[in-house]
Amino acid sequence: MNKHLKNINFRCGLVLTAVVVLAAAVSFFWTPYDANRMDPGHRLEAPSFYHLLGTDQYGRDILSRVMVGAVNSIFVGLATVVIGMVAGVVLGLIAAYIGKWADESIMRLSDLLFGFPAVLTAILISAIWGPSISNVMVAIGIFYIPVFTRLTRAVALGIWGREFIEAARASGASEWAITFRHVLPNLLSPLIIQATIQFAVAVLAEAGLSYLGLGTQPPHASWGRMLYEAQTFMEISPWMCIFPGLAIAWTVLGFNLLGDGIRDNLDPYML
Asked: What pTM was computed for the model?
């Protein structure tokens, strides 16, 4: 058996995330019903053979909306991690390479960004440009920049002091060549681990912001928005909140376990 698959966290996380990704992929081609089609004659129906997860207050099929909501969550997670990672890696490398005033300025900027949580940033952006999923992605992505900046800086500083860097200098390689040929490749493992864990946080953050009305706008499906709409009907139709809530918990747990498994597999001190 592959050494990576021997790790129980990696195996469980891979299975959980694969189910979410598969549901999202299938929803591009097929869902049991149109996720936005209203059918007042079948509103608030309990799970049955015709509607496996029941229907909501408008008669919309909950399974179809959960599948479509998976696409939204994965897209937001990917976009926000890419925003935070690209900007954070660039700033972290500059801070580690130049040092002095550049390092101090970038670290203070990171402290400033840490002072504005994703929710507060989303509220600020929504107040200016209005609530939308793109504004949520920008808000969460900005919040991730200092996370990746600090990680990149810390790891890069350790790499710059290694023997193979001195050997590269002795061979005549320029500082920028060393950065791209030696420092950046050695950053990949911690960045992949951090990105996987932050992906789970992004899914949870998007659901929370959509619940507050700052993210995905109706009639488009979003797990957080589905929970918001379900709160009025919890006593008579508990399935309306149970299944979107389980989808969020399933996805967050899956990516957290996957991140832990990747860390255990890639960190030589964990072997």
From this structure: 0.86
